[in-house]
TrEMBL record:
This is Phosphohistidine phosphatase, SixA. Gene3D superfamilies: Phosphoglycerate mutase-like. CDD domains: HP_PGM_like. It comes from the Bacteria. SUPFAM superfamilies: Phosphoglycerate mutase-like (SSF53254).
């Protein structure tokens, strides 16, 4: 079984001609890192792999998320920038890559429409809109070449108690 988390980058308006994470975006990302840390503790899991889109707003999201998570846990994980996690990537290529190259608990930080497309592809068409900084968790069973996924939880910054 694999646990796969999908996160959309934080709020990122155009700043100096490029989309960058806003102050409120960084705040939401920190809030979600706290929530994520609690979820990992409740599920008795730890993050193994962090796959991040090469686009600036996803990289900035990962930087803030990691810095916050490192304050909350002593665990370590592998971070990898992956072009297959870019906005227009094909889920038919991204999903096998994630399933075959990662172990344990994996977090993907990417963009719309890919985050919603991945969610729908893993869950057989169940659609889910991802507000900025939102996260969803899937449990994926891989047996004899077939894959079956189920939704564990979905949360946006507005849904957290912190």
């Amino acid at each position: 079984m694999k646990t796969i988390w999908i996160m959309r980058h934080g709020d990122a308006p155009y700043i100096n001609g490029e989309r960058q994470i806003s102050d409120s975006g960084h705040q939401d990302i920190r809030k979600m890192a706290h929530w994520f840390s609690q979820q990992l503790k409740q599920q008795d899991e730890r993050l193994s792999t962090l796959l991040v889109s090469p686009i600036l707003r996803a990289q900035q999201t990962a930087d803030t998320f990691e810095a916050t998570l490192k304050e909350l846990t002593e665990a370590s994980w592998q971070r990898q920038t992956e072009p297959l996690i870019s906005p227009e990537s094909n889920p038919d290529l991204t999903i096998p890559f994630v399933e075959q190259t990662t172990q344990g608990t994996t977090l993907l930080i990417s963009h719309m429409p890919l985050v919603s497309n991945l969610w729908a592809a893993w869950l057989g068409g169940e659609s889910q809109y991802f507000p900025t900084s939102a996260m969803g968790c899937l449990s994926v069973e891989l047996e004899s070449g077939t894959q079956q996924a189920r939704k564990v939880i979905f949360c946006s910054p507005d849904d957290t108690d912190s």
